[in-house]
Amino acid sequence: MSGNHNEKLEFLGDSVISLVMSNYLYKKCKDEGELTMMRAKLVCKQTLAEFASALNLETRMKFGKGALNTNARNNEKVLEDAFEAYIGAVFLDSDENFLEVMDFMKPLLEPKVEKLLLEKNNAQQNDPSKPIIGPQDVPLMTLPLEDPINKLQTWSQRRSFGLPKYNLVENKEVENKEVEKKHIQPKFTFEVVINGITYPPGTARNKSEAKKLAATNALKLIDDTVKIIK
Question: What is the pTM of this model?
Answer without folding.
Answer: 0.53
